[in-house]
C-alpha cells in the first residue's frame, strides 16, 4: 500500500503522516511507502519527502506515475490568501486539483482512493441552524468556491471511474497548535490555546456566537477514515459533512473553566471586532451529519474533550499552574 | 449597447439573435451592435457573424476586447457528447467558460452583464417532487458538472466585481424544431412535433413520467430578460431556477389531442426503451421557482400554450389536415 500526502507540510498533513506511520496500515494492508509532498519539501523521518509545485502538471504527473494506492489531497492556499490573490487561489486550489485528477486519469488501469480535504467555506448564509447532508451549498469566498469546484470534480472523476474519491467537509479545527494567526477564525483557537498556556487572549465576538468544531486529532481521524470506508455505499455523492461539536463561544469558555479553572477563563478579554464578527457570524452553527455517522466517522463528544485532546497532544498532558 | 452571443449558431442562439433584432433594445438602450459568434460562423443579416474557438483564450480575448455590454454565453457541447468525450466536454464547457470570464477580468473598468445558460442537468436523483430555489444540486453527468462549475464561477466572478452575472437553469425546451435527434430527451419534442406534422412518433417511456418544460420562445424570453433584470436584488446567488410547465407525458398527449385532435395523438406509438427511461426518470419533475417569478421571468401557463407556440412559431400558425 503506497500512500501520498499532497500538502504534507501543513499542520494536518504533518499530523496525518505521523498517524499513518503509527498505525502502519490502510484497508488491512501494510503501508509500504509514505510519500510526503508539499511546495517546500516536508521533513519527517521514515517517509520520502518531496518538493512539488502542484500548479506544474509535469511535477504532479511525476508523483502520480508512481501509482500510489491512496492519495490525501490537502494542498491548498487558505481562504484569506485565496481572497487576496485571485489568480493564485484558482491556480493552486482549482488548477492544482485538476492537475492531480488529470494525472491519475492519464494512467491506465488505475483508480486510487483520493481523499480530498474540503471545507465549511462551501456554505454561505442564509443557513438553517442545523445543516443537513442535503443542504444546498453557497460559497461566499473564492476559497469556498474552489473547494466546492474540487468536490464536484471529485464526484465526476469518481462517477467516470477515474478515481475512487471522497471529499471531507472538515469542521473548523480547534484548538490549532502554534502561534496566533490573523485568520478570521484564529480567535476560536487562541481564546483557548493562550489561556491554557497561561497567556491572555482577545475575544472579538459575542459569547452567543455558535460554530462547528473538531480537534486536530479528530480531523486526522476523519482523513484516515476517508481512506478506509467502503465508498460503494456512498453512491455518486462523494462529499460528506462530518461530525463535530457545536458550541457557542460561551460554551467554549465554560468548558475552558471546567478543565482549567476560572483563572484560565479570566485571561480572555472581550474586545469587539466588527470586521471579524461580520465574517464568522455567517458560518455554519451545527450539522446533522447522518451519512458520515453511518459510515463510522467519529468526532469528540463535547468541547471539554476537545480541550482535553489539546492538553494531551500539545501540552504533554500537563496544564500550566496559575 | 453592444451585445455578444457566444454559441449563436445553435437553436436558441439563432432565435435569441432574431428576438434582439426585433426588440432592438436592452435595459432601455438601443442595441448598437450585435455580434454572433460560434465555432462555425453563424449567418444572420444585420449582425456581425464571427467564427470563434472558445477553447482558444486568444480568440476569446479578441472578442471580449471589444467590450460588449451584454454577453450571452450559450456555447457548449451537449450532454451526450460531453459524456462520450470527457476532454472535449471539459475543454469547451468548463475551459471555454473560464476563457470568457478571464478575458473579461483582463479588461480594466469593465463589468458586463453575462447571461450564462445553465441546465436542469445540475440536479440529480434523489429529488423532491417539487424543486425549490434552495434544493441542493447533484450533477450525475459531466455536462451537468460542467454547467454547475460554470454557475459557481459566475457567482464568484460576480462577487469579486469582475462580471455582473446571471445563470439561468433552463427547463427542457419543448417543442424543439427540426429533425428528431438521438438525445435521451429527444422524444419529449418528437412525440408532439411529428404528430403536428402528420407523422408517426415513438414514445419510449410510460405516460406517467413527469418533467419540466418551456417553449423555445419562452427560453429566448428568459435569456433576454436575464439581460434586463436588476441583479443587485439577486445578491450573491446568481443562479436561478426558471418557471415552466410541469407535465406528465399523458398530460402532454392530452394537450396534443385538445389542440390537434385524436388523430394526432393516435400517431404516437408506445415502444418501451429501458435505457431512455433509466436516464429521464431521474430528471426534475417540477419547480417552485419563487426567485425567478419575483424577478419577472415568465413561462407558458399550460402545455396547450406550449403546443400553440410551436404552431405559431414553426408551422406558420397552421396545423396540417389529417
Question: What characteristics describe this protein?
Answer:
homodimer, 322 residues, alpha/beta, Rossmann fold, seven-stranded parallel sheet, three-stranded mixed sheet, 39% helix, globular, NADP (chains A, B)
Molecular structure report:
Chains A, B: Residues 3-202 form the NAD-dependent epimerase/dehydratase domain. The structure is a homodimer of 322-residue chains. With 322 residues, the first copy, chain A, is of the alpha/beta class. Chain A has a domain at 2-171 and 214-241: NAD(P)-binding Rossmann-like Domain (Rossmann fold), CATH 3.40.50.720. Chain A contains twelve helices and 16 strands. The first copy, chain A, has helices spanning 11-23, 57-64, 79-84, 86-105, 142-159, 186-196, 216-226, 249-260, 262-265, 274-280, 290-294, 303-314; strands spanning 2-6, 25-26, 29-30, 33-38, 48-51, 70-73, 113-119, 131-132, 164-170, 172-173, 201-203, 210-214, 239-241, 245-248, 268-270, 287-288. In chain A, the strands form five sheets. In chain A, strands 5-4-1-6-7-9-13 form a seven-stranded parallel sheet, with helices on both faces. In chain A, β2 and β3 form a beta hairpin. The longest helix of chain A has 20 residues, at 86-105. The A-B interface holds A 86, 105, 124, 134-140, 142, 145, 148-149, 152-153, 155-156, 159-160, 236-237 and B 86, 105, 124, 134-140, 142, 145, 148-149, 152-153, 155-156, 159-160, 236-237.
Amino acid at each position: 500500500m503506497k500512500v501520498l500526502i499532497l500538502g504534507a507540510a501543513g499542520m494536518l498533513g504533518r499530523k496525518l503522516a505521523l498517524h499513518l506511520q503509527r498505525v502502519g496500515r490502510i484497508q488491512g494492508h501494510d503501508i509500504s511507502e509514505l510519500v510526503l509532498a508539499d511546495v517546500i519539501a516536508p521533513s519527517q523521518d521514515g517517509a520520502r519527502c518531496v518538493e512539488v509545485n502542484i500548479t506544474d502538471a509535469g511535477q504532479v504527473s511525476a508523483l502520480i506515475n508512481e501509482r500510489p494506492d491512496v492519495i490525501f489531497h490537502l494542498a491548498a492556499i487558505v481562504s484569506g490568501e485565496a481572497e487576496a490573490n485571485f489568480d493564485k487561489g484558482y491556480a493552486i486550489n482549482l488548477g492544482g486539483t485538476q492537475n492531480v485528477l488529470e494525472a491519475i486519469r492519464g494512467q491506465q488501469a488505475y483508480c486510487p482512493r483520493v481523499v480530498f480535504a474540503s471545507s465549511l467555506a462551501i456554505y454561505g448564509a442564509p443557513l438553517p441552524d442545523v445543516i443537513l447532508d442535503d443542504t444546498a451549498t453557497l460559497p461566499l469566498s473564492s476559497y469556498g468556491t474552489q473547494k466546492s469546484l474540487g468536490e464536484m470534480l471529485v464526484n465526476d472523476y469518481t462517477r467516470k471511474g477515474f478515481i475512487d474519491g471522497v471529499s471531507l467537509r472538515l469542521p473548523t479545527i480547534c484548538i490549532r497548535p502554534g502561534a496566533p494567526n490573523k485568520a478570521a477564525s484564529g480567535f476560536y483557537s487562541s481564546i483557548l490555546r493562550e489561556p491554557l498556556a497561561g497567556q491572555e487572549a482577545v475575544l472579538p465576538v459575542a459569547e452567543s456566537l455558535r460554530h462547528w468544531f473538531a480537534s486536530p486529532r479528530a480531523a486526522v481521524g476523519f482523513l484516515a477514515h476517508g481512506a478506509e470506508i467502503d465508498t460503494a455505499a456512498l453512491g455518486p455523492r462523494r462529499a460528506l459533512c462530518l461530525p463535530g461539536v457545536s458550541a457557542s463561544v460561551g460554551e467554549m469558555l465554560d468548558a475552558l473553566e471546567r478543565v482549567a479553572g476560572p483563572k484560565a477563563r479570566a485571561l480572555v478579554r472581550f474586545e469587539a471586532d466588527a470586521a471579524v464578527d461580520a465574517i464568522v457570524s455567517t458560518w455554519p452553527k451545527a450539522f446533522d451529519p447522518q451519512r458520515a455517522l453511518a459510515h463510522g466517522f467519529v468526532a469528540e463528544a463535547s468541547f471539554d474533550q476537545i480541550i482535553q485532546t489539546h492538553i494531551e497532544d500539545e501540552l504533554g498532558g500537563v496544564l500550566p499552574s496559575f
